[in-house]
């Protein structure tokens, strides 16, 4: 196939995503008001709890076998490499451009954590159904592609809620420390600390009284400063131990919550039903006695992709081109344009090139199955825009929300072009 033919094949799925995303963005504006923030949150919960688990279970249970699970062992390693490469490049970007300390974790997170689930669930099946696709039969390609995307989503969620969660949480600690420091510095330098009475005493009562008043003034400033200092325990070691165990408990609880998330549970059940032959025979196939369960689950799962795409478009209106507030957000954001440009270069220039080298090396060493679609999915994992969960975390910890919206807007805007170009390159390499 020619390069331009592949370019056309790769562009159709992304254009479909853009069209539906623009519809979701328009529905979320005040002009239409069909998909406001509350409606998006409710729909997102339905997608998270019902639609996405149904799609993941239906696709995995139908296509996955025990041999497949064994042969896909490189995918978790590949996702880990995307986080490692992006994290290192993001760290170098932070050291080079020096954004505000509380934004360092956000910058590294947007460089390392890709949207491993939602976009793959949309793009991969759409690539399969195009006539010029080089991945074989459309129906088989779509079903297998959904299995790859489902596994990617389950594994990516684990990395995001461990590594990325830690980055954003650390940023919130820096942000609170910065706030305390700036507040204390402002109080220390303020000329209006209600010292007028002491000043009058100094002028009226002479030099000797002035010395006494100076001491009083100094004491007043110290007392005010003490009120704004971080709370330090009388027993530092006990405080550190309590903080350590509290952080560890919170960290393990978040991992446990991620492992019990509906998509993760659905993925595990899908793997179990796919790997165990007699369980698979209960629900899969025309002669299966409980096939109505699989059909019902699949019917629910079919609503996942359109709903996710509408929500994606609607979420981008939080400081988006449709609302004047976005322009104010750009002006008030504390993240510099060079940092945004650096994140874009890392996500869409450096990581894809590194990803091609890693996947081709793994294929040459015999680590990957012969399926070209599997290798395509591994390469695309290096090209995805930042994970939407980062925005959820910034809201959770109340840090860098405006900056996150700006980064999301530009990275998702550029991803439309980047996904088309790199998908074309990947298919050309694999064809």
TrEMBL record:
Membrane-crossing segments per the record: 12-34, 46-64, 70-94, 106-127, 147-168, 338-361, 373-394, 406-429
GO cellular component term of the entry, any: endoplasmic reticulum membrane
Pfam family, one: Mem_trans
Biological processes, Gene Ontology terms: auxin-activated signaling pathway; endoplasmic reticulum to cytosol auxin transport
Keywords linked to the UniProt accession: Auxin signaling pathway, Endoplasmic reticulum, Membrane, Transmembrane, Transmembrane helix, Transport
Protein task: Involved in cellular auxin homeostasis by regulating auxin metabolism. Regulates intracellular auxin accumulation at the endoplasmic reticulum and thus auxin availability for nuclear auxin signaling.
Protein name in UniProt: Protein PIN-LIKES 7-like
Bilayer topology term: Multi-pass membrane protein
Superkingdom per UniProt: Eukaryota
Main location: endoplasmic reticulum
PANTHER family membership: PROTEIN PIN-LIKES 7, PTHR31651
Compartments in which it is found: Endoplasmic reticulum membrane
Organism: Trapa incisa
Family: Belongs to the auxin efflux carrier (TC 2.A.69.2) family.
């Amino acid at each position: 196939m020619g390069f331009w033919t592949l370019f056309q094949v790769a562009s159709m799925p992304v254009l479909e995503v853009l069209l539906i995303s623009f519809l979701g963005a328009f529905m979320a504006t005040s002009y239409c008001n069909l998909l406001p923030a509350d409606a998006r949150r409710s729909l997102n919960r339905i997608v998270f709890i019902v639609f996405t688990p149904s799609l993941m279970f239906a696709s995995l249970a139908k296509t996955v076998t025990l041999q497949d699970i064994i042969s896909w062992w490189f995918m978790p390693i590949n996702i880990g490499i995307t986080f490692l490469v992006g994290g290192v490049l993001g760290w170098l970007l932070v050291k080079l451009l020096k954004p505000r300390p509380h934004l360092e974790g956000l910058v590294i997170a947007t460089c390392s954590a890709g949207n491993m689930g939602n976009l793959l669930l949309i793009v991969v099946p759409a690539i399969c159904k195009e006539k010029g696709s080089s991945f074989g039969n459309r129906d088989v390609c779509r079903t297998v592609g959904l299995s790859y995307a489902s596994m990617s989503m389950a594994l990516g969620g684990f990395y995001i809620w461990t590594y990325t969660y830690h980055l954003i949480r650390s940023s919130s600690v820096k942000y609170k420390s910065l706030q305390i420091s700036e507040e204390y510095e402002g109080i220390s330098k303020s000329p209006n600390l209600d010292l007028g009475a002491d000043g009058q005493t100094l002028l009226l009562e002479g030099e000797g009284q002035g010395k006494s008043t100076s001491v009083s003034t100094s004491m007043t400033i110290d007392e005010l400063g003490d009120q704004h200092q971080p709370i330090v325990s009388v027993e530092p070691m006990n405080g550190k131990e309590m903080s350590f165990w509290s952080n560890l408990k919170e960290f393990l609880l978040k991992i446990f919550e991620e492992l019990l998330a509906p998509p993760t549970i659905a993925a595990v059940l899908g793997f179990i039903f796919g790997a165990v032959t007699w369980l698979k025979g209960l629900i899969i196939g025309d002669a299966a006695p409980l096939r109505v369960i699989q059909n019902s689950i699949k019917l629910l799962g079919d609503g996942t992709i359109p709903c996710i795409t509408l929500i994606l478009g609607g979420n981008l209106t939080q400081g988006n081109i449709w609302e004047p507030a976005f322009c104010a957000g750009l002006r008030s954001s504390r993240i510099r344009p060079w940092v945004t440009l650096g994140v874009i270069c890392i996500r869409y220039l450096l990581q894809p090139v590194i990803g091609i080298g890693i996947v081709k090396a793994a294929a040459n060493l015999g680590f990957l199955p012969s399926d070209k679609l599997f290798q395509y999915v591994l390469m695309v994992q290096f090209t995805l825009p930042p994970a939407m969960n980062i925005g959820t975390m910034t809201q959770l910890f109340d840090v860098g929300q405006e900056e996150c919206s700006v980064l999301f807007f530009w990275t998702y805007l550029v991803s439309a072009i980047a996904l088309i170009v790199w998908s074309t390159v990947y298919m050309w390499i694999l064809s």
